[in-house]
Automatic annotation (TrEMBL):
Function of the molecule: Prolyl 3-hydroxylase that catalyzes 3-hydroxylation of 'Pro-62' of small ribosomal subunit uS12 (RPS23), thereby regulating protein translation termination efficiency. Involved in stress granule formation.
Catalytic activity: [ribosomal protein uS12]-L-proline + 2-oxoglutarate + O2 = [ribosomal protein uS12]-(3S)-3-hydroxy-L-proline + succinate + CO2
Source organism of this protein record: Carassius auratus (Goldfish)
Domain of life: Eukaryota
Keyword Hydrolase: no
Any one Gene Ontology molecular-function term assigned to this protein's record: peptidyl-proline dioxygenase activity
Gene expressing this chain: LOC113052312
Name recorded for this polypeptide: Prolyl 3-hydroxylase OGFOD1
Cofactor: L-ascorbate
């Protein structure tokens, strides 16, 4: 009777030598071919396309390479996938992304993970250094990402000190364009700002994509649309000397304007009469001063709301896509060509009487007729100080001087101003945090329309966070005909969360593809 092959014994924990050693990771043999290596190196230096076997180099919109069969052993890849799926994944979500990520894989001891780590940062790094003619460090920077339904990574360039080459190894089931999750590459303009997606790479089992991190390497992971498939990948960066980066482009500021001369009859025609009652205004102001934010549902009169809501879906309005996509993506109305009721609503929010109403609702000094309580208190303090003697008088005088300086600074600002947009929000729209935003005090106003039944899991909400922190301070959800007011200080930033595919069913049930908001910022 032939001897049985020695198997793993659960009672002793022993394995045969082959099983204990495990299978080794071996990269595609084409990468070891000297002719292929020379062809890649020459093409990369000349920024030309190159194809040989499983290797495909393309230089548009920026140099990137796809190796369609990166590892020779299918069974190794399957075992690696199984090992990765056993890891703990943490949900990650902010303005830029929503997906699940493992802990850093630098210290993981699992056989297949340690093998792939050794291959990528060993043999493959040496090959890549030769192709790019760059000395890449043996730094291990690698993690595993899992993208499922509605997960996304929006437009960014990957630039961070020391990053030279980005890579992604895909471990996905058979994937189709309709599943989403493509790696989208952006063209750029003369300011090195992204413009639009010009190439989409479909994730493919056991394929590896790499590209040089540069001022124009803008890319994104498109939203995963499949409800069944998981987009699993290993990704990271090779470190080396960074490429030269041009001066950061500063967008020209959007012009602000003072109020437009419209009398208070406009308020009585448009605004719910409840908000025009001085006693109610006083209650709103007290609540706003305590929390610096408030939502006022049912703000517009119903008839006016119906008119505007209907007009916003009119083909008469021209919607311009606002970018660049590393900062924002939504539709903005050309206010030179809108229905009359939409124009009137815009004028309402820009009018002198509305500035006064906002002053009464918030206590902010948005009109010269509205007293400045702080200034009045400072004046009272000053008068009281002048009637005192001694050391206490000297200290109070210094305090009074500081207050006078603050008041003078306020007066030096000039008259209150505002800037506004009429925005259309559809599946795929968002805004991102970015450095070029001027940090200053201001009152944010949003008046949403056409979003009845909206759910938080759709995205589209406005999130306020503290500067340089992940802490969320406040969330404003889209609510039909609700006026949201938020007073923002210099250390508070905001973004609008990416609107995902889950919203499509609600919008289609309402025979529309979008909701809308009037978005204004007011400055004292």
């Amino acid at each position: 009777m032939p001897a049985k092959k020695r198997e793993h014994d659960p009672t002793t924990g022993k394995k045969n030598k082959k099983e204990k050693r495990g299978e080794l990771a071996v990269i595609n043999s084409d990468l070891r071919d000297e002719a292929v290596q020379k062809g890649m190196r020459d093409a990369w230096q000349r920024k030309e396309s190159y194809t040989n076997g499983d290797i495909h180099l393309d230089c548009e919109p920026f140099p990137h390479c796809q190796i369609t069969r990166f590892l020779q052993s299918e069974s190794f890849v399957e075992s690696l996938q199984a090992e990765l799926l056993q890891l703990n994944f943490n949900s990650k979500s902010n303005d830029l992304y929503k997906f699940k990520q493992s802990d850093d894989l630098r210290e993981r001891k699992e056989h297949y993970i340690s093998q792939i780590r050794s291959v990528i940062f060993g043999e493959f790094r040496i090959w890549l250094s030769e192709v790019l003619q760059v000395d890449l460090e043996a730094t291990v920077d690698i993690s595993c990402a899992k993208y499922e339904h509605t997960d996304v990574l929006l437009c960014h360039d990957d630039e961070l000190e020391g990053r030279r080459v980005a890579f992604i190894l895909y471990l996905v089931p058979p994937w189709e364009v309709k599943d989403g999750g493509t790696l989208d590459l952006f063209s750029t303009d003369e300011h090195c700002q992204p413009v639009s997606v010009v190439k989409s790479l479909l994730p493919c089992w056991n394929s590896l994509v790499f590209f040089e991190v540069s001022p124009v390497s803008f890319h994104q992971v498109a939203e995963v649309l499949s409800e069944e498939k998981c987009r699993l990948s290993l990704s990271g960066w090779f470190h080396g000397p960074s490429l030269p980066r041009p001066s950061r482009y500063i967008e020209p500021p959007v012009p602000r304007h003072t109020h437009i001369p419209r009398d208070e009859s406009l308020l009585f025609e448009w605004v719910n009469e409840m908000f025009l009652d001085p006693r109610y205004q006083a209650r709103v102001q007290q609540e706003f001063e305590e929390s610096s934010e408030i939502c006022l549902p049912g703000f517009l009169q119903e008839e006016k709301l119906r008119q505007v809501r209907s007009a916003l879906q009119s083909s008469e309005i021209l919607w311009e896509r606002k970018g660049p996509p590393n900062k924002r993506c939504y539709g903005c109305a050309d206010m030179q060509n809108v229905p009359s009721c939409v124009q009137e609503c815009w004028e309402l929010l820009s009018s002198e009487s509305f500035f006064i109403l906002l002053s009464n609702l918030t206590g902010l000094r948005l009109h010269y007729l509205c007293g400045d309580e702080e200034e009045s208190e400072n004046e009272d303090g000053k008068n009281e100080t002048e009637n005192r003697d001694g050391e206490g008088n000297t200290q109070a005088s210094a305090s009074s001087t500081d207050a006078d300086t603050s008041t003078t600074e306020k007066k030096d600002k000039g008259p209150p101003t505002c800037v506004g947009e009429l925005r259309r929000w559809m599946h795929g729209d968002y805004t991102l945090l970015h450095d070029s935003v001027k940090r200053e005090y201001g009152l944010d106003l949003q008046l949403h329309m056409g979003c009845a039944g909206w759910k938080s899991e759709f995205g589209g909400f406005t999130s306020y966070i503290a500067h340089d922190e992940d802490e969320e301070l406040l969330t404003v959800y889209p609510e039909d005909n609700s006026l949201a007011l938020v007073y923002r200080d210099k250390d508070t930033l905001k973004f609008i969360k990416h609107i995902n595919n889950s919203s499509s069913s609600l919008l289609s049930s309402q025979n529309t593809a979008a909701f809308y908001d009037f978005s204004f910022n007011y400055y004292e």
